[in-house]
Amino acid sequence: MTEYLNSHVNRPPPPLLSRVAESAFWMSRYVERAEHVARVLLVNINSLLDVGDLDLEVEKQFWSGPLRIFMVEQTAEAQELIETAREGLGSKIAQYLVFDGTNPNSIYSCITRARENARSMRESISSEMWENLNTLYWMIRSEDASGKFDESASDLLKQVTNGSLLFQGLADQTLGHNQSWQFIQVGKFLERIDVTCRVLQTKFDVLRVVEESIETTERNMHLLSVVRSCCALESFRRNAGEIDPDAIAAFLLLERAFPRSVCFCARHAHDAIRRISQQTDLSKVLAAEGILGRLYADLQYTNPQQIEGDQLAPFLERIQLSTLEATLAMKKSYFLQ
């Protein structure tokens, strides 16, 4: 018995196939992206209900935000929705971002791709993770999903956000924290960094366009929608309190203790990459580790005053470029085998 334990307990993990590593990474990113789409839509719907009737042009600006955040505003379908819709604009855009299979960043597409990646590494994830993802998959593909969404959009969107949170919790609690789990973490945190930056940039751009056409109350509601979109309302109020664009940007980018801030995500993405390098050939992930290490150091030592006003946009662009470079470095060195 002692010999068995000595040979089987705490032994080094076997090498991870590149195929499994890539599937774990993208499975996690797609689940995280679906959650963000659902949350941004839910916040947009609730915010516009709270402010009541708006001028059509102002409403178009507000609803163009989710399209820009998820990089589909230039597609022919999105342009047609914005230019031709006179009534039910929000409902049509929401349907496009939830159910359209031709939209690569719709919830439908993200959940489908996450499930495909999970199926390709079925032996490397827990049955609980697979069941959770399968439940989301069949929920979004059911024949009456679109009708239910028209009746109560918030119910379906909450199912998606809760399903994503459950999926990540199951990954933490039912998987060994080995290389597969580390790649899941890297995917989750890189996606979170990227979307948070795009939420900040897009929401603030929309505010600049419509600020002269809306009341102070509507302006504050829009600013609060930024932190709500990042699941940060209560934490922001406890730490900052003032409804101010600079304060919101500083919190979502630089707050070290909040798990959805860019600084926190960069730290944990870098930590996951570092742990992967300890279990594999260091040269495979050295480039990505360096990129994320520099990003974390930059965020850690940036003062809020350095990203105020016009300084914010180039700072966000640098962060997004770093996440893209880290993803490409991982693809080149680890996934392409």
Account of the protein in words:
With 337 residues, the chain is mainly α. The chain has one domain (17-335). The chain is 76% helix and 0% strand. The chain has helices at 2-8, 18-51, 56-69, 76-84, 89-99, 107-120, 127-141, 145-151, 153-174, 179-210, 216-229, 233-239, 245-254, 262-279, 282-300, 312-335. The radius of gyration is 21 Å and the shape is globular.
At a glance:
With 337 residues, the chain is mainly α.
Give the SSE map.
Layout: H1 2-8, H2 18-51, H3 56-69, H4 76-84, H5 89-99, H6 107-120, H7 127-141, H8 145-151, H9 153-174, H10 179-210, H11 216-229, H12 233-239, H13 245-254, H14 262-279, H15 282-300, H16 312-335
Helix pairs in contact: 2-3, 2-5, 2-6, 2-9, 2-10, 2-11, 3-5, 3-10, 4-5, 6-7, 7-9, 8-9, 10-11, 10-13, 10-14, 10-16, 14-15, 15-16
Order of helices and strands: HHHHHHHHHHHHHHHH
The stretches of 5 or more residues where confidence is low (pLDDT under 50) are none
Compute the CA-based radius of gyration.
21 Å
* CA distance, first residue to last residue: 39 Å
**Class computed from helices, strands and strand pairing:** mainly alpha
The total number of structural domains is 1
Morphology call: globular
- The helix content is over 70%
Overall strand count: 0
Number of helices in the DSSP assignment: 16
Strand content: under 5%
For the residues shown, what is the average pLDDT? 89
How can the largest sheet be summarized? Answer: none
* Oligomer kind: single chain
